[in-house]
Write a sequence for this structure.
């Protein structure tokens, strides 16, 4: 196998060209039935071929190219669906929509608002997979088994992600408290 000037293995490029020529129409039809627009379908098809350009894909597809191509396409749709669900849950829990408890005085209101801001910062700085598990559990009220089934991961993975999320949020909160208590902070 020789290497082309752009660094792609010629065998891989030939493999992709052959797959593209043979299956482009059926792949686009597959995505058009499942996605909102023709543009989304084309983007998804292109992403499938990019994934097939990754090392090892040609060997994995050897002898069953069509099945492998549509397995990659199906997995791509699953990945997109998971991301959209996670984004939908995150979007439904925007800090502006959080109902704050009634505070009797201005000082309490400031404390509540600062706490919400710390939580917002902490959530936004979490790793996406940890944030997704945290939001599903704490906001969506899903149990660990439900989250594992929904995300197609093990319960142990859910536990680890939740633990990391809680540890991270605790550190963010403690850092915030330390900054609040530091003598160099100006009074509000």
């Amino acid at each position: 196998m020789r290497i082309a000037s752009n660094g792609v293995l010629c065998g891989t490029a030939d493999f992709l060209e052959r797959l593209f020529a043979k299956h482009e129409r059926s792949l686009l039809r597959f995505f058009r039935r499942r996605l909102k627009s023709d543009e989304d379908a084309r983007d998804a098809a292109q992403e499938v071929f990019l994934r097939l350009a990754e090392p090892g894909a040609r060997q994995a597809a050897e002898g069953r190219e069509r099945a492998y191509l549509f397995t990659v396409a199906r997995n791509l749709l699953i990945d997109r669906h998971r991301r959209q669900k996670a984004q939908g849950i995150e979007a439904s829990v925007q800090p502006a929509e959080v109902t704050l408890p009634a505070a009797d005085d201005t000082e309490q209101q400031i404390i509540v608002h600062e706490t919400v801001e710390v939580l917002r910062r902490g959530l936004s700085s979490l790793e996406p997979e940890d944030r997704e598990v945290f939001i599903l559990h704490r906001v969506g009220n899903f149990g660990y088994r439900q989250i594992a089934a929904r995300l197609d991961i093990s319960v142990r993975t859910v536990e680890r992600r939740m633990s990391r999320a809680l540890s991270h949020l605790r550190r963010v909160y403690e850092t915030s408290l330390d900054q609040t208590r530091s003598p160099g902070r100006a009074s509000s």
